[in-house]
Design brief:
By secondary structure, this protein is of the alpha/beta class. The protein contains 15 helices and 14 strands.
């Protein structure tokens, strides 16, 4: 992909350097009393290889992440502390700053010692993040000497922490990002045929991206209901999905919470023929504990001879809950980013690193 990777740099290069690392800690949270509990910590775990490399290189690590809900990343810092201690032997406390930019943040960064990890507050609490405000990007960049993007799952978005910072600082991709690119590039160029894409929990932007893949994939199985990202603009027709030789629309059962038994059977027939199966989103309303269709399709793919790829936080959470995550050939943490890469062969976050 002609972009620098973290291991292009020797450990001695990072000794004492302040390194901004964009991670994706947008994890599912559940409130129990006054506490927020993390439902699935897979995304935190996926960042540990990159953090281990930087910490052992004696870098001063500053983590950037967003959280979809407008709440604090404090519970995530606590979970990161537990995982880092148990899995990579990090024997210090992960520090958490309740701000993103400003004098207080500069103070926290100045106090970092070699090998420290500091997590800043939820990026989405600053308007400049989603607007890709160059001033906001510059304020973040001034905190560090180097930038690492280890959030492939967010790199289809033109946000300040994804495309703004690498235009200012020397940069590289982290180990998780590198693995995602290599795997998806290999699937794109050398996939086993037929390729079957299973779309569930459908967001409008995901469906638009999937439409670009019609020439490449052999079948698209559409389950679930369409969730509009935003209302249609004046004069814009609403997005419609139509069945075709390549696109098979699933029918929902009466309560609308899952696909029907007939659709499950039809989808399984296509999955059994596949050489590659790509899951982007669970089929049923797994948030409400509805797993029948999702489980049946996962199991059918696992039992086949196909290469099975899954993408997206909800998909990963469903696989973990069903105890099937280890049966996938590969899991990408971001479904939207996965589809965008397979549709276009690149992402805004990749282009920013390349340039």
């Amino acid at each position: 992909m002609s972009i620098p990777v973290l291991t292009d740099y020797s450990p001695s290069y990072f000794n004492g350097r302040r390194v901004l690392v964009r991670v994706d800690y947008n994890v599912p949270l559940q409130k129990r009393g006054e506490k927020w509990l993390i439902g699935d910590d897979s995304r935190i775990r996926s960042s540990l290889d990159t953090l281990s490399y930087l910490v052992s290189s004696k870098a001063r690590v500053i983590l950037l992440s967003h959280l979809g809900k407008p709440i604090s990343l404090a519970p995530v810092a606590q979970k990161l502390n537990e995982l880092a201690f148990g899995l990579i032997g990090y024997k210090r406390k992960v520090k958490f700053c309740p701000k993103i930019v400003g004098k207080e943040v500069k103070g926290w960064v100045k106090d970092l010692e070699k090998g420290d990890i500091l997590l800043l507050e939820n990026l989405r609490l600053e308007k400049g993040e989603e607007k890709n405000d160059p001033i906001f990007a510059k304020r973040l960049a001034k905190l560090a000497d180097f930038y690492v993007n280890d959030a492939f799952s967010c790199s289809h978005r033109r946000h300040a922490s994804i495309v703004g910072i690498p235009r200012i600082l020397p940069h590289a991709v982290g180990s998780g990002f590198e693995k995602d690119i290599k795997t998806l590039k290999n699937i794109l160029e050398h996939s086993q045929r037929p390729v079957v894409l299973v779309l569930g929990g459908i967001k409008e932007d995901k469906l638009k991206t999937a439409r670009k893949m019609v020439k490449w994939v052999d079948k698209i199985l559409v389950g679930g209901t369409l969730v509009k990202s935003s209302p249609p603009k004046a004069g814009q027709a609403p997005l419609k999905v139509q069945s075709s030789k390549k696109i098979i629309l699933g029918k929902l059962r009466r309560d609308g919470q899952d696909i029907s038994k007939t659709t499950i059977k039809r989808f399984i027939e296509e999955i059994k023929k596949a050489g590659t199966v790509i899951f982007a989103g669970p089929i049923g309303n797994t948030g409400a504990g509805i797993f029948t269709g999702t489980k049946r399709l996962f199991e059918a793919a696992i039992e086949s001879d196909a290469f099975v790829l899954a993408g997206g936080g909800d998909t990963q959470s469903a696989l973990t809950r069903l105890g099937l995550a280890d049966n996938m050939n590969y899991i990408v943490s971001g479904g939207g980013a996965m589809l965008s890469f397979l549709a276009d062969g690149t992402l805004p976050g990749i282009e920013a690193l390349r340039n």
